[in-house]
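Suppose you are handed a protein chain with no further information: no name, no annotation, nothing but its sequence. What can you learn? This example shows the usual starting point.
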Amino acid sequence: MNKSNTPLLLTDEQMRTFITQGFLILNTDFSEQFHTQLEQTLNDVYEKEGNPGNNLLPRVREVQMIFDHPVITGALTSVLGPNYMLHAHRHGHYNAASQAGAWHKDSYWGYKRMRNHHPWWAMIMYFPQDTPVELGPTGVYPGSQNYEQRLFAQDDNKEEALASGKAGTFALIHYDIWHRSTPNLLGRPRYMLKFEFMRTEAPAAPSWDNEDSVWRRPAICNTPIAEHDTLWEETWNWLTGRLGSIAGTRQADSSELAELKDALLAGAEPAVLDAAYELARTGQQGVEILLEGLHHQNKPVSRNAAYGLSVSGEDAVAGLLAALDSPHKHTVVHAAFALGELRQHAAPALPKLAALVEHAERAVRQTAAEALALVATPIEPAVEGLIRALEDDDAQVRFTAGLALSRLGAAAESAVPQLAAALEDDNRYVRAHAAEALNYIGTDEAKDVLIAFLFRSRWCPTTTPDNAFYP
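A reasonable first move is to predict its three-dimensional structure. Written in structure tokens, the prediction is:
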């Protein structure tokens, strides 16, 4: 096994593939014995105790070695930055079904939120046993990570990519890619261990082994639904730390603007996304069309317009700020999302975003909480707003606030007392996110609260119904 702890960062070509196709297949150099033993442990746990769910990592301690491997740390660092978070939700998938599962995007622990084109989230899927096609590996649909709709048939497997291979195969996927389980035709146990990861910092520079600053397509660009050169270029630039890189970079005449507007309002989803990103390129004229789309009564039109506005730079801020007063919930949600993605450009909107954590609609409060941590300027009202969100009646708002505070680090120290209270919340993710926030805040006070909580909630991985006390 590779003895170095230095992350093996992805290459430019691998990053281009991830941006376009939404996934990479990775392999480590663990021994065959390691995977065999881990599979046997899983067999024992599942047979005697059932699925350990979120306790998968402490229950099967060898799994941590996987996520410490330089191939995995390097891939996650490349996509999510060096301070990425291993999320508290994890799941061991067991597939013995002879029928394919349904194509789907994962929810956020049972909840919905505005999905990101920028890779703020990713998943790792690990297969501990040899997983030939006949054993039912996970299938992903290349290039589908940016689509809300399933734009292919439920039984479409012509373009499906399979996470098939020897024991120790990993799939690194964009969180929002369409995926499914495929038929297990051999009748043997097939495990897939799924772990989620979150970026805690916006990119300031490339975090992979970057040599070329200019976007280029990968040598193999397999996106069977559509190609999105402007969206891909903007994502590449964003990952290199260039916020709003495509905003106002070209002129468009009235005829082209009219065509882009028609596509935005009435096109199929791939054409709508292309129109939204191209309008962002055209400066203030494009922003005006996107703002009209943002206020559209059709929610998908509004959502896709928000994606364009989220990469339109400072020109979009005034219109988005005004949209926060809309009587329509979806308009406010989409405007708050776009302002968050604009980060420091959206500083004038922060007081109003902070006020939205008191909004009557849960979805607005949740989106505002996430946006506060992304804009974060000025920091004091951002933290104050998130402290109020930690005390919300809705669990989703509370756990979003905890994740948001993780992104602020030591600047959120004034939230430590409220985070300490959140450690006793009834919701498992509110508790988990509060603990993560205390970890990322990292002050002495935060660490003391966190350590005391971890000792109180210590979970013993070897205590089972068959082994309650000894040895």
